[in-house]
Design goal:
The protein is of the alpha/beta class. The chain contains six helices and 16 strands. The chain is globular and about 55 Å long. It binds ribulose-5-phosphate.
Length: about 230
């Protein structure tokens, strides 16, 4: 996504932030732009507390003097603002391209409201993946064999030639969804395997999504919510 679009989304997202809110802060390049804007908002006197979904996000928030709460300290989370990797017409979402899926999912599940920021490339007819699956390193061959038996391809995520390690000390398998008919069911099946911590299929769907269409920010509302959305 172009930097300009990320900035447009960030500036539209800040309008959803109100004084006194506890905000879940997502992870990734789109959220990074939002946190920059939030930092300016706080500097200008806005009062908010953040709950970070990754060490990287926490470090950025700290640099910008955005007050942070741990999940234990937060008595509530009003709103999470985060990026996504894919979304379909039913608002089913894949996340975890940045490897923060577990914490992002926990914070999203605890948030009263979920707002995602996505450029047009993130909208798909059906979810094609890859589906990130966070696993304990010891269970790697067990999970890989399960996938092989199902003729589903998976790649161990790497960074700088070494296995990518999540903030929680786990590995990520990026699972190809080409041969998967029902992603919801498949994610549930994966979740039931010993050693699988979480998948990037987010059962908690967003209430709304901000996107850029023809140079303008548009708010799309979950199909089950009757609040129209529209240009921002
Ligand atoms: C991190 C995520 C990100 O939100 C997702 O990968 C989108 O990233 P970006 O905003 O860089 O496109 O899920 O785990």
């Amino acid at each position: 996504m172009y930097e300009q679009e990320k900035t447009m989304l960030a500036e539209a997202a800040i309008k959803h932030v109100k004084n006194g809110m506890v905000i879940g802060l997502g992870t990734g390049s789109t959220t990074r732009s939002f946190i920059d804007v939030l930092g300016k908002w706080v500097k200008a006197g806005g009062q908010v507390q953040g709950v970070a979904t990754s060490d990287e996000t926490a470090a950025q928030a700290e640099r910008l003097s955005i007050p942070l709460l741990s999940l234990e300290e937060a008595t509530r989370i009003d709103l999470i603002i985060d990026g996504i990797d894919q979304i379909d017409q039913q608002f089913r979402v894949l996340k975890g391209g940045g490897g923060a899926l577990f914490r992002e999912k926990v914070v999203a599940l605890m948030s009263r409201e979920v707002l995602y920021l996505a450029d047009a490339s993130k909208f798909v007819h059906h979810l094609t993946g890859p589906l990130p699956v966070e696993i304990d390193p010891f269970a790697r061959s067990y999970v890989e064999r399960f996938l092989q038996d199902k003729h589903v391809d998976a790649t161990l995520r790497e960074q700088d030639g070494k296995p990518f390690i999540t903030d929680g000390g786990h590995l990520i398998l990026d699972v190809d969804l080409k041969r998967v008919q029902d992603v919801h069911h498949f994610a549930k099946e994966l979740k039931s395997l010993t050693g699988v911590l979480e998948t990037g299929y987010f059962e908690r769907q967003p209430d709304h999504v901000l996107t850029v269409e023809q140079g303008q920010v548009r708010r799309l509302v979950h199909p089950e919510l009757r609040d129209g959305g529209g240009l921002v």
